[in-house]
Amino acid sequence: MISYASLEGILTNTLGLTRRPVAIAFRDDAPSGVAQFTGTQPSGCSFWKLAADGGAFYTVPGDHYNCPVGSYTHNIPLPVERAQELPRVLGVMTELGYLKMKEVPGIPRLAKTPGVIIYAPLGETPVEPDAVILTGRPGGLMLLHEAATRSGIDMQPLFGRPTCMAIPAAMSQSVANSFGCVGNRIYTNLSSDELYSVVSGAQLEALTEQLATIVSANAALGGYHEGRLATLRRPPSGSAAA
Fold first, then answer.
1. Alpha-carbon distance 152 to 137, whole Å?
2. For 7-16, 28-37, 215-224, which range has the lowest pLDDT when averaged over its residues?
3. pTM
4. Which of 31, 219, 51, 226 is nearest to 134 (CA)?
5. CA distance 197 to 168
């Protein structure tokens, strides 16, 4: 069995992650021994931060109704009395020039409505994750992407808004990357120098296994490029000093 605690340690230390990696799983029924979320949250991505900051829990579709866009990407139909909230928020976005309606059909979505969604820090996940959210800075996540390429894992395009569409995109045995969007940054307190990579749970172990090779190669190449730069900056022999 995969040691998710070990994978979390390797990923966090090697990539310099700024938050604990978050495992997400979509199931028909809640696993035994996992607490159900109670209360309300303003967005689906708010649950990411809760999981990174704490332990495992699960949500039901109704916990996501406050986030019409997140409900859309997670294939969660809004109840009749709230059904107009999605077209209303999309209308605001299009009026502001933030989004074009023709983009909406191309937004990745889950294939079916989940019965429950399980969130946990990767090292504490009670089930095999469908996707793992990694939060970090470009220099660290660069290593992740190079390891994915070395592993032969498909790389999705770099996504923008909405951030949550990176989850269903990554679940197709791939890695999806997201700059984050303004809503996500507000609801999760993501800083301006952080971004996301979302990895298919099925590919996580294979990707992690390649990190040591990539880190070693980058260290060697770093020394090569530093030496090359110093050589190119050196004045030619016999030239007059400035």
1. 23
2. 215-224
3. 0.90
4. 51
5. 13
